[in-house]
Amino acid sequence: MAAGRFISFLQLTFVAFVGVLSCAESSGSSCKLNSDCLDAYCRDGVCTQDCVDAAKDCPKGYVCNSIAQCEYAGPVAGAGGGITQGGSAGQSAGGAPMTSSGPGGGGQNPDPSSSSTGGAGGNMPELKEDLTLCQTDDECASGVCKPMTPSGVRRCTKSCSASSQCYSGFRCETEGADQVCRASDIGRSCNAAGQCNFACLSPLNHCTSACDNAADCPNGYGCADAGGTKVCVRLSADCAADTSQCVAANVCDTSLVVSSCSMACASAADCPQRASGLPPWTCDGLCRRPPDVYGPLPGGYEPAQWSCNFNGEVVNVCNDGLHIDFDAFSQPAAPSVNCNSPTTTDGLPGDACLDSCRYRGGCPFGFACSGLAELSSGRIGLCVYSGGEEVGSACASNGECAFGLCSEAGVCSRDCSRDGICPSGSSCVAQGGPLIEGLPYKICQ
């Protein structure tokens, strides 16, 4: 697989998705993401535990981290801790209460690749660049090491006052008493305060964050008022038989092949934003999907579902009109569909719904936005699965890598086109080819 190459959508039928997350599974269960596993991590598609007791299960100098991996502890003693901070509750326009929260604890130990440099006082640890795994503030050039999500890995990051100051895929959120850039967890499953960086939206039960308009949200999410605070709200849900997954129970768009959640809007800016170059959502009082989209299934939904549109043409019913085999990084053919069938038809093995993305809004939790697609003369971002391997680690697919990008060289990377930021040991290098959002396409290598 050439994970770093373009996939061309010049002749595709467009479909979309918003990250659907399954319940956590115990060690030995199948998985695609670390978040699929309970007290374990995802390795080669299986929930895996390296350790329970570091002294018995791990090499000397290693600790057993929060996802049961043996991690190098380095010269710093002790594990990082977090502070849980309560928040206030709000009410959405559709009657959905929003529970606001701060982060929980959790620590991640520094990687063993950190080098040392000689100084007047002898060897001293080299300070780590932003986005590098860390344990304490002292390790980071920025002086800031924070958990990316409650109980999640810790990375060198920076203070902020607005999300526009943060790296691609990150948002300015509260951590303890600080405002820092943290990984976006919009779309992550939740049911209580403390499970999200910003707030848990109920009854939709997904993490959310504040927005000025839907350009601040992942594709498939609108920006709706929640008791005086506008937040990102998932619209990629089927409401044909059950409207409870819609932001307002009575906002179900029945004009599509498969009825799909929508929301009230003042303008198209409130509605989900696809990659530049794709037909946009519109607003007529309700957010309306573009004419090449026929259903609500979120990115990652597998198998993709197919039906016939009102012209008798076979189409998928993904929320962004795109579909892909994430592992092979190719587009499966459409299945044979009986247009008289009252139900949808499963796609071929490996076929899954796919979302496009813009750097500003990023992707739902569990996915990363990388410029891996070509459309006409430009490049667009795709929401690809993200895993646990750091930049520089060997990989065979995008989904193995923490930033959702496996280069053609078979090494985990990161799309740094928008911010130019790479973890320690790598640099942001232009790759040539079409621009993306007016920017040269660059990756960490």
Instruction: Give the low-pLDDT segments.
Output: 1-6, 9-26, 72-121
Tell me the strand percentage band.
25-35%
Largest sheet: 4 strands, mixed
Radius of gyration: 21 Å
Average pLDDT: 81
Number of strands: 33
Distance between the termini: 18 Å
Strand order of the largest sheet: 1-28-29-27
Shape: globular
Helical fraction: under 10%
Total of helices: 1
Structural class: mainly beta
Structure characterization notes:
This protein has 445 residues and is mostly beta strands. The protein has a domain of 39 residues. 1% of the residues lie in helices and 27% in strands. Strand 28 and strand 29 form a beta hairpin. The chain is globular. The chain starts with 6 loop residues before the first strand and ends with a strand. The N terminus is likely disordered.
Secondary structure blueprint with pairings:
Elements: E1 7-8, E2 41-43, E3 46-48, H1 54-57, E4 62-64, E5 70-72, E6 86-91, E7 97-101, E8 116-119, E9 122-125, E10 145-147, E11 154-156, E12 170-175, E13 178-183, E14 199-201, E15 206-208, E16 221-226, E17 229-234, E18 252-253, E19 260-261, E20 282-283, E21 287-288, E22 305-308, E23 314-316, E24 323-324, E25 345-346, E26 352-353, E27 356-357, E28 367-375, E29 378-385, E30 405-406, E31 412-413, E32 428-430, E33 442-444
Parallel strand pairs: 1-28
Antiparallel strand pairs: 2-3, 4-5, 6-7, 7-14, 8-9, 10-11, 12-13, 14-15, 16-17, 18-19, 20-21, 22-23, 22-25, 24-26, 27-29, 28-29, 30-31, 32-33
Keywords:
445 residues, mainly beta, four-stranded mixed beta sheet, four-stranded antiparallel beta sheet, 1 helix, 33 strands, globular
